[in-house]
Amino acid sequence: MFYDDKFKSAGELSKSSLMELMTAEGGRQQELFQMARTARHEHGLDQITLRGVIEISNHCQKSCDYCAMRCVNKGFNRYRMSSDEILAIAAEIKKANISTVFLQSGQDPNCEPILDEVIPEIKNKLQMGVLLCIGEKSKATYQRYKDLGADSYILKFETSSEDLYQEIAHTPLPRRLDCIRWIKEVGLKLGTGNIVGLPNQSLEILAEDIQLALQLQPDFVSSSPFIPNENTPFEHLPLGDLNLTLNMMALWRILFKNCLIPSVSALEKIQKGGQLMGLMAGANVITINFTPKASRDKYSIYSMDRFVVSLDHALNIIEQAGLQIQQPPAAVAV
Ligand code: 5AD
User: Fold this and answer.
1) Residue minimizing CA distance to atom 13 of ligand 1
2) Is residue 58 lining ligand 1, measured as CB closer than 6 Å?
3) Which residues of the chain have pLDDT under 70?
4) Any domain includes 6
5) Is the CB–ligand 1 distance for residue 222 below 6 Å?
6) What CA–CA distance (Å, rounded) separates 153 from 68?
7) CA-to-CA distance for 45 and 23, rounded, in angstroms?
8) DSSP state, residue 107
9) pLDDT given for residue 331 in this prediction
10) Atom 6 (ligand 1) nearest CA
11) Separation of alpha carbons 138 and 239, rounded Å
12) Is the C-beta atom of 229 inside 6 A of ligand 1?
């Protein structure tokens, strides 16, 4: 096979080899996907982990150029859920036989008292895993989440280029990388990753993203294609490239063998069937959206008409991929 030699010493893959792999097309791309599926199979990761996401607040302190929840968007319709609302939805997630509650929000300090209440309830009363994706915090705050019972935390570096990160997020990348390291240091499982298709993002930068992730040693890793979002400075930019994103996902799987890798909803937004392609490129996680419609419509993470993943859709593509879901309570992965 064409790529066999390249992976003999995966840890030492050069930037140019990574760039070549990322741009694989046709038969070579299929070979890459096959290698990713083989890696998933050999590591016993063919059972797909489902997560139920609740988007608890769309307030945000940051002003990232790709996201409509940016704080400078003054006319934006903001919401923050109450503890009771969150706990009622968490119970629905449990009823759907999903064992992980994924709490996501903008970077919103006013969520802190709510998290103090809901994390222990979800962990201890509902006996579910708690995954957070709520932004850059102090090390003490990450420690508090851990002590409250959180299991894992996703903070994507978005891009490994310091200049590009500063330009798109208007805050320093080293500060975000400190946060990522603190998450691990306090004992939370770490999820990280990048966005594919940012302006001025070269293939070389994407290869450096992989090298950065290799240093960070995450438990989950992901790539999502860039989606131009209304009412942002990036609204007129082109969509991220589907094939480049899928190739990155396959590389994550081959190089990060034990990681959980999501097939994100943005893939489906780019192309119908995109999330199934993600599973065929080695992903093993699907996140089902449990945010009630009224709030969901205001949580414009990708775009106003983002693709919202239902349980039916997830079960359908898992079946089409010839895979099965991880059955709780065996699901320890969060
Ligand atoms: N396009 C692609 N990915 C996005 N994210 C947020 N907005 C976009 C967008 N417009 C991703 C970022 C963020 C995660 C929660 O969602 O990687 O960290």
Assistant:
1) 156
2) no
3) 1, 8-11, 328-334
4) no
5) no
6) 22
7) 25
8) S
9) 46
10) 301
11) 33
12) yes
Task: Name the residue with tokens 């503890």.
Answer: 83
* Residue written as token pair 């050999």: 42
29 contacts 273 by C-beta, under 8 angstroms: no
Nearest ligand 1 atom, CA 156: 18
Q: Report if residue 253 sits inside a domain.
A: yes
The CATH number that applies at residue 214 is: 3.20.20.70
Tens digits of residue pLDDT in 149-169: 999 999 999 999 999 999 999
Specify the amino acid at residue 51. R
Rounded-to-integer distance, Cα 194 and Cα 209, Å: 7
Are 318 and 297 within 8 A, CB to CB?
no
- Annotate 49-84 with b (16+ C-beta within 10 A) or e (fewer): bbbbbbbbbbbbebbbbbbbbbbebeebeebbbeee
Report which of 16, 19, 17, 12 is spatially closest to residue 3, judged by C-alpha positions: 17
Instruction: Name the residue of 154, 236, 301, 304 whose CB sits within 8 Å of the most ligand 1 atoms, as the mutation to test its pocket.
Output: 301
70: tokens are: 């940016």
Q: Sign of the CA dihedral 115, 117, 118, 124?
A: positive
CA distance 9 to 13: 7
Query: Is 67 a pocket residue for ligand 1 (Cβ < 6 Å)?
Result: yes
DSSP-assigned letter for residue 158: B
* Cα(238)–Cα(201) distance, integer angstroms: 13
**Is the CB of 287 inside a 6 Å radius of any atom of ligand 1?**
no
**Secondary structure letter of residue 272 according to DSSP:** T
Tokens of 199: 């302006």
Q: How far apart are the first and last CA of the chain?
A: 35
pLDDT 10s digits, 280-303: 999 999 999 999 988 988 887 777
**Residue span of the structural domain in which 61 resides:** 14-320
Q: pTM to 2 decimals?
A: 0.95
Contact 251, 21 (CB under 8 A): yes
Q: Is 332 part of a structural domain of the chain?
A: no
Report residue 233 as tokens. Answer: 């400075």
Residue 326 lies in a domain: no
The total number of structural domains that make up the chain = 1
